[in-house]
Amino acid sequence: MGRLVNEKGLHVLLNAIPQILSTFNNVKFVIAGKGPCLNNLIELSQKLNIMNRVYFTGFVSEEVLLKLYKCSDIAVFPSTYEPFGIVALEGMVAGIPVVVSDTGGLKEIVNHKEDGMKFYSGNSDSLADCLLELLSDDSLSNKIRNVALQKVHKLYNWDNISERILNEYKYVISKYKG
Fold first, then answer.
1. Residue 74, burial from CB neighbour count under 10 angstroms (0-12, 13-18, 19+)
2. Is residue 61 part of a domain?
3. What is the end-to-end Cα distance of the chain in Å, rounded?
4. Alpha carbons 21 and 113: distance in angstroms, whole number
5. Which range, of 59-68, 107-116, 140-149, 162-171, averages the lowest pLDDT?
6. Does residue 139 belong to any structural domain of this protein?
7. 71: CATH
8. 2: left (phi over 0), alpha (psi -120 to 50) or beta
9. Which range of residues forms the domain containing residue 11?
10. Pick from 78, 125, 73, 69: which is nearest to 99 by CA?
11. What is the pLDDT of residues 1-12, one digit of tens each?
C-alpha cells in the first residue's frame, strides 16, 4: 500500500509469489497504490504468470484502505529502504500480522516471530519463507497479531509519545544547564 516506486520492494514480493502459490494456490495479493513502477510490476506479474492472483487497485481512499486491512490475513512491507516504518504500525493496529524487510525503521519496530516477521531485505526466498510460515501456522499468526496489538497500544500511543518527547527535552535542558 502506497507509492509504487522501486524502493518499496514490490518486485521482491512478486518474485516470492510463485513459491507461495506452489503451496497455497488460493492466496490473493492486493497491491494498492500508484506510481511510476506500476507498468513494470504488471509486466513482471505477467512474466511470472501470477496475474490471476495479483490485484493492482490503484490509489485507494483511507476508508477503502482500512477495509483492505480488515479483510487481509497478512500485511507485507517489502521495502528495500524505509526510514520510519509507520506502515508496519498501521498493519499492527489493523490487527493483522505484518511481514517486513529488515531495513531502516521497519527493523526497529518489528521483533521477528514476536510481533511480526522480518525477512532479509531484497531476498524473495526469505520473504516467501516468512509468508509460508504464517500461512501454515495459525497459532503463530494469532500470537503475532495479539502481541503486536498490545505493543502498539502500549508504546505508540500519543500519551506515551508525548511523555517520551517531554523527557528528552528535560534531559537536553538539564545537560545544557549542567
1. buried
2. yes
3. 47
4. 22
5. 162-171
6. yes
7. 3.40.50.2000
8. left
9. 6-177
10. 78
11. 889 999 999 999
122 assigned to some structural domain: yes
C-alpha span between 16 and 111 (Å, rounded):
22
Asked if the structure places residue 1 within a domain, the reply is no
Q: Kindly report the pTM of this predicted structure.
A: 0.89
* Residue 55 to residue 110: CA distance in whole angstroms: 26
Residue 149 corresponds to which cell in the numbers above? 496489538
β 117-119/98-101 pair status: parallel
pLDDT tens for 73-118 read: 999 999 999 888 888 999 999 999 999 999 999 999 999 999 999 9
Q: What is the three-class DSSP state of 21?
A: helix
Number of domains in the chain: 1
Q: Grade residue 159 by pLDDT with cuts at 50, 70 and 90.
A: confident
| 24 vs 160 pLDDT, higher one | 24
